[in-house]
């Protein structure tokens, strides 16, 4: 039995039903600052890591975003960008990013609350927050890897790096009959 509701949110208790690999990522435009916005289209042509997380200032979220900041050069080695998305406001994101010295944008899925999280299948209705979920998109905006972590566990960066490495490997040449 799934805990996903008709609007794509999770009613709590079980991990969300995130969009599957091979699915085109839903477009979005969210505030990256009170007077600035970013869209999925802004990242076309390069891999994009989307890190949904429950809340600014929580210990696990702070550690997770700090880790991604630390490994940002590794992501960039694959030509990838990263964004963090939570239901916090752009003002909260601004203070949190400044405090943690983050060098990647945090996007506010604030109003309507959790709309983008719902479209990706990672909104926790019971908690009123995004699930802790990761998506790696290719340059065409197609989901190539995703993972939903328990809310109290930092999912780390290994899965992201493995997905980026797999995307960077050339596809095997088709076998021609002899």
Number of strands: 10
| CATH topology tier name of the domain at 60-167 | Glutaredoxin
CATH level 4 superfamily of the domain at 60-167: Glutaredoxin
Overall residue-averaged pLDDT value: 90
Poorly predicted parts: 1-15
Roughly how many Å apart are the termini? 50 Å
Rg, rounded, reads: 16 Å
Helix percentage: 25-40%
Task: Specify the structural class.
Answer: alpha/beta
Within the largest sheet, what's the order of strands? 6-5-4-9-10
CATH class type of the domain at 60-167:
Alpha Beta
> How are helices and strands ordered from N to C?
EEEEHHEHEHEEEEH
**What composes the largest sheet?**
5 strands, mixed
Plain-language structure description:
The protein is α/β, with parallel strands linked by helices. It has a domain at 60-167: Glutaredoxin, CATH 3.40.30.10. It has five helices and ten strands. It has helices at 59-70, 72-77, 90-100, 115-119, 158-168; strands at residues 9-10, 29-33, 36-39, 48-52, 81-86, 106-108, 123-124, 129-130, 132-137, 143-149. The strands form three sheets. It has a five-stranded mixed beta sheet. The protein has a three-stranded mixed beta sheet with strand order 1-7-8. The longest helix is centred in the middle third of the chain and has 12 residues, at 59-70. It is globular. It starts with 8 loop residues before the first strand and ends in a 10-residue tail after the last helix. Mean pLDDT is 90; it is low at 1-15.
Present the secondary structure layout.
Layout: E1 9-10, E2 29-33, E3 36-39, E4 48-52, H1 59-70, H2 72-77, E5 81-86, H3 90-100, E6 106-108, H4 115-119, E7 123-124, E8 129-130, E9 132-137, E10 143-149, H5 158-168
Parallel strand pairs: 1-7, 4-5, 5-6
Antiparallel strand pairs: 2-3, 4-9, 7-8, 9-10
């Amino acid at each position: 039995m799934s805990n996903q509701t008709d609007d794509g949110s999770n009613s709590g208790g079980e991990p969300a039903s995130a969009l599957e690999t091979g699915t085109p990522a839903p477009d979005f435009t969210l505030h990256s600052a009170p007077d600035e916005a970013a869209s999925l289209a802004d990242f076309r042509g390069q891999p994009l890591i989307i890190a949904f997380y429950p809340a600014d200032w929580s210990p696990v979220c702070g550690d997770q975003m700090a880790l991604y900041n630390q490994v940002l050069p590794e992501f960039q080695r694959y030509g990838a960008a990263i964004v963090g998305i939570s239901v916090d406001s752009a003002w909260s994101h601004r203070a949190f990013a400044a405090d943690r010295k983050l060098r990647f944008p945090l996007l506010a899925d604030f109003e309507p609350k959790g709309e983008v999280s719902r479209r990706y299948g990672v909104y926790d209705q019971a908690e009123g927050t995004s699930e802790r979920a990761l998506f790696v998109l290719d340059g065409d905006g197609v989901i190539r890897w995703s993972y939903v972590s328990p809310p109290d566990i930092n999912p780390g960066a290994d899965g992201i790096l493995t997905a980026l490495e797999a995307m960077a490997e050339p596809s095997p040449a088709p076998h021609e009959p002899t």
